[in-house]
Amino acid sequence: REREREREEREEREREREREREREREREREREREDRERSLQREREFNERALEREREERVRERAVNLEQILASKGVLTSRGIYEHMLTIMHIEMKLPGKFNATNTCHYIKNNLQSLSGKSFLYTKSFLDAMNSCNFDANNLAPLYTELCSAIHGAPWS
Predict the structure, then answer these.
(1) What's the pLDDT score for residue 74?
(2) Fewer CB within 10 Å: C terminus or N terminus of the chain?
(3) pTM of the full predicted structure?
(4) Is 114 helix (H, G, I), strand (E, B) or coil?
(5) Do residues 147 and 78 lie in contact, with contact meaning Cβ atoms separated by under 8 Å?
(6) Residues 127, 79: Cα–Cα separation, whole Å
(7) Which residues, 6 or more positions from 82, have their beta carbon under 8 angstroms from its beta carbon?
(8) How far apart are CA 35 and CA 101, in angstroms?
(9) 100 burial class (0-12, 13-18, 19+ CB within 10 angstroms)?
(10) Which position has the higher pLDDT, 54 or 155?
(11) In a 10 Å sphere around its CB, with 0-12 CB exposed, 13-18 middle and 19+ buried, how is residue 133 labelled?
(12) H-only helix segments in the chain
């Protein structure tokens, strides 16, 4: 009887140790689960911050692109209007050969005094506008070169 009681006590202690080991394993699983959740939460937060930075970068890029587009449209328009006026003046002055903006600018600069007659209506209005802005005829060709450089990255004739 004593042996049986001892045996039962040993078995009970063994069962108690087994339950304690099981509780410890359960606590360990719970800690691992919490660690995984914290890790996933950190990863989600990191990804959200990365997405937000990416969105902000795209917005900045779009703003820069829009500024570049608007600036290039302005340069294209300016150069286009300027070139159109030079073309009209080339025709009006009956310059020989194909139109060349730089050559037309040089011709205007070199023949400024003789271009004031009634037969040079567009040329005169252009020169009047140029004078109202205190713009020197020596700067006609450099202005065209500058506008073309802004568009093409290199001077254009």
Answers:
(1) 65
(2) N
(3) 0.49
(4) helix
(5) yes
(6) 17
(7) 143, 144, 147
(8) 73
(9) middle
(10) 54
(11) exposed
(12) 2-92, 101-110, 121-132, 140-152
**Amino acid sitting at position 77:** T
Q: Which residues contact 92 (CB under 8 A, 6 or more apart)?
A: 119, 120, 121, 122, 123
The owner of tokens 């005094």 is 113
Banded pLDDT at 60 (limits 50, 70, 90): confident
Of the chain, the end-to-end C-alpha distance in Å amounts to 119
* Per-residue pLDDT reduced to its tens digit, 63-72: 767 666 666 6
User: Alpha-carbon torsion 116, 117, 123, 125, what sign?
Assistant: positive
Place of tokens 């294209």: 76
Looking at the chain, how many residues does it have?
157
